[in-house]
Amino acid sequence: MISIQSLKKVYKNVTVLDIAELSIGQNESFGLVGNNGAGKTTLFRTMLDLIRPTEGKVEINGKNVQGNDEWKSYLGSFLDEGFLIPYLTPDEYFRFVGKLHNYSDADMKSFYQKFEELFNGEIIGKDKYISDLSKGNLKKVGIAAAFMGTPQIIMLDEPFENLDPTSQIRVKNLLLEERKQRSITYLISSHDLNHVTEICERIVILEKGKVIQDLRGNQNMLAELEAYFKA
Amino acid sequence: MVTTLLDHGWKKFTRSASFNKDVATSVFLGIMALMMVGYSLAFGFTLNTLITKGLGQDDSFTFLNMLLLYYFVVEFVMRYMIQNLPVIDIQPYLHLPMKRSGIMHFLLIKSLVHVMNFLVLLLFTPFAFTVVAGKFGLGGACTWILSIWTISLALHYLVIIFKKQLDDSIWGILVFVIFFSLLAAADYYSWFKLSDISAALFSGAASGASVLLLIILLLCTLYFFCYRFFIQGVYTDEQQISTVKRKAQDFSFLQGFGNVGDWINLELKLIFRNKRPRTVLYMSGLFLLYGLIFYTQDKYREGMPWFLLFVGLFITGIFMINYGQYLYSWQASHLDFTLTRPVSLRQFVESKYWLLNTVTVFCFLLSIPYAWFGWDIIFANAMLTLFNLGVNIFIILNMAMWGPKKINLTKGGSMNYQGVGAAQWVMGIPLLLSPYVIYVPFASFGRSDLGIIAIGLTGVLGIVLRPYLLNLTVKRLERLKYSIAEGFRQD
Lengths: 231, 491
What we know:
The structure holds 2 protein chains of 2 kinds.
Chain A: E1 2-11, E2 14-24, E3 29-33, H1 40-47, E4 55-60, E5 63-64, E6 75-78, H2 90-100, H3 105-119, H4 135-146, E7 153-157, H5 165-181, E8 185-189, H6 193-199, E9 202-207, E10 210-216, H7 221-230
Chain B: H1 2-15, H2 17-21, H3 23-54, H4 60-82, H5 91-94, H6 100-110, H7 116-166, H8 170-188, H9 194-207, H10 210-232, H11 258-273, H12 275-287, H13 290-295, H14 298-301, H15 305-324, H16 335-340, H17 345-366, H18 375-399, H19 422-444, H20 448-464, H21 466-489
């Protein structure tokens, strides 16, 4: 589904990303971990065609993401506040994104229902612009919007950061529940090893832009991760 | 503490991305400031001659004193436009063991370092030490000029209070201007003479220290009020959170235009909900009146037909020029969104094309009453509208891609240099000169009428070639989007 080939990004002679080969299959839940500056966000941005790689390419469904709009209709993503529109209310924002995916009123309704619990009555129907929301609520808006358009792939950067414990559990359940119902690929980066091992069957450790380890669905993934980060 | 804060302020200035990247803007602003100082000084030294010889007033001292209060009205408006609310990011200091009151006093006193606070000295010191000193001696000259300076400083704090209370809106200053215009009219028809009060006040200032002391008291009071406002504003949670005032602010008629309509709808919300783009829109409205200055004078109407092109270009294209020079910067905060959602860049660019062009047509329609001054004006404006729609729009769409900078939407509009790069200074040149490239060859053969028609025809050509030109523009954006997005992410 997603294939990365000899991908390299160099900023002023510093290589921040260097991945010889990485492919992520359909219905795979793929986790990305690594300390600060490991290149997680750079990798995600490159996959979203927001950064032009120095070398190599990212292909989604056999097509280079660069200069191609097709993947945008089946990849939902939320990396940071740059993916939100600050001067809209959350309702307006969802309606706008929904429109881009040709949502009907019924679709909007079921969307709101799905996220009612996560929103906790703090987001919908409030006369507040997105720019005035707290960091936790911003995250919720972004994550929910990434689910719009029933995407085949969902990419989230640190989805648990800034969320309260209840919301963290709710996001986790949302992600797990979605995968029970349909085939979907996740790309999730996180610093929370517990959450990421619960959601992901495959976890890649990035260090200085390179894939250090590629762990797959075994029982002691958490132990292996802890062993790596302790060192 | 003061030196530390000064040091931090200096570092913030020199280390900001725009300072390092944009020497051109700094140089330009520096030259502007120098020119302003130069002109003011020149004005100051010739002031007495201007009044006695130019205006034929024998008693230049009384005459100037009569006008001084009106001068301060003008200065107030100028300050309102130029002066920004003093801010340092106080948040990082509040939790540290520093006196809160100390930080506030620092902030308020530092704000005095502003070119406007020295303007009166440049303008009136030469007059003080020649004319006033001749009449009242050196002491009188000193109290006179000090009184004037103190009033100017008091205005500095008054503007801060005014701006803080009115949230930088344009209506407060309009009411202010109208009020003083009425006073001036009353003065002119001798119903109520503000000029007499002014004359009494400032001749009093020259003859003793009591007036000066009163004004200093006024300055201290205003300073104290400012201080109170700021110390109360420390609690960030009490600062106004902008809630949605009108919920139904949705331009639903645009739904019939598909995705392009949705993007225009979004951009209209951006304009109406944020201070700075809103100011740009209001300014465009004011510029519609620009023609009144020139169309009413035969000097321009008959003598300088080429100048009227310039006026027409401004009247119909001012929004396109002013808003368009930051075309991509307005939506900088969510460019990543735009690039990752299922929307093609073509639709994105097209929405901007239609938005700017529609407003331009609106401006033209609103300018039709100028027909009162002659139909030739409307004809020229129509041709220039076509030119804006067909040619200038593509110049803007493309030049705005040249190193755009992020704009923080919540900050006020007038004299806000955020988002200004070298491109913004240069951009005006081709926009304003391009019609002349077509016009001048015809005009030099004495057929300026044909020249105007040729301008319109070139515009039509651009409109006809629209699909092709749009494609070129989109391709360029496709190429530049990575560097633009990266620039926006870096703040």
